[in-house]
Input
Amino acid sequence: MTAMAKKIEITSQDYIKFESQVCAPNYLPIPAVLERGEGVWLYDSEGRKYLDMMSAYSAVSHGHCHPELVQVLHEQAQTLCIASRAFYSSTLAPFLQKICELSGLEMVVPMNTGAEAVETALKAARRWGYEIKGIPDNKAEIIVAANNFHGRTTTIVSFSSDADYKKHFGPFTPGFKEVPFGDIEALEAAITPNTCAFLVEPMQGEAGIIIPPKGYLKKVRTLCDKHNVLMILDEIQTGLGRTGKLFAFQHEGIIPDGLILGKALGGGLLPISAFVSSREVLETLRPGSHGSTFGGNPLSAKVGLKALEILERDNYAQRSADLGAYLQGELKKIDSDLITDIRGSGLWVAVEINPQKAPARAVCEALMARGVLSKETHDTIVRLAPPLIIEKEQLDFAVGALKEALKEVEKAL
Ligand SMILES: *Cc1c(COP(=O)(O)O)cnc(C)c1O
Output
């Protein structure tokens, strides 16, 4: 109570201590206490300004508090927010139609968080497997890739390869098989008559921005067609311009049978996700089979539609392609013994740090001290994924800060 009353005098350190007492320790945050965001900039409680090179794991592609999105949110908040799908609402169909138009698919299940949309995809794939493909009841298999990240529910962590995600959360959901990412032979060998779907990220995000061999998605498409298996792409992170195309599958000119969206779909304001697929797949979800109290609510539908319109109008995918190529080029000029690899697609770049020399965390903390925020992935990777509205000069600032941060970390060795 006294802490609240004296808010103005609270330092970042006080706040961090306070949060650690009441918030479960399931994250290890970089020690910046954020209070305000505007475009590509974040401000902490002591007035320091940071360039956001993380954009909330790609949820903030539009930048913080995008004025047009805030306006739509504000207007709709005064009109109708939550109605539930017990009723129709005039806002839902235009939003879903836009998703269909952009993706080339036919129908949508609106949800809220990414994990829920993945769960929806898994359920729809199994339904399709039993009711359309004719798999015997309870025998459906879904193939996934090693080192996948699809979220945190019990079923989703059942097929994770990360021990930390699973430890003491069992027993797990059966029915999943794992193959190495990017390995088309292994995928073909794993397919059986009971396989209903292959679920995969077109480029793996949390695994450390892993790009599969060229032609992989095309070969997956062919294989799935050949064996009557649904190709389901989790584009929660790669989608909506992040990799330099509107969807990562467009790099290879294919269309999946199922597409999972989230993160940037909410325009950086709300949790909005979707499972997008064909009529054939989604008509198996008859009334009562699946649902979500908040999924597709009028506030989300309005913000989601506007987020997509802005993305298209302001050509975020092209910006990401052009500026991403520039960023990678500038990063590759850095002469540092700490860097072992630089890779990525669009404004989605991994800087791999030699773990024998220093943890990626140390680089992120040195970046923070220079006014740039990012977060390490798996101890060895500094992820650079700014809002797609970022300007070239701001990327230069980030690269300059990284150079100095690397020097500082190297000196401390
Ligand atoms: C973030 C992410 C998810 C999970 O989304 P949540 O909104 O955190 O549930 C699933 N898949 C991918 C590829 C992601 O990057």
The CA atoms of residues 104 and 255 lie 7 Å apart. The pocket of pyridoxal-5'-phosphate is lined by residues 57, 113-115, 118, 149-151, 201, 205, 234, 236-237, 262-263 (CB under 6 Å).
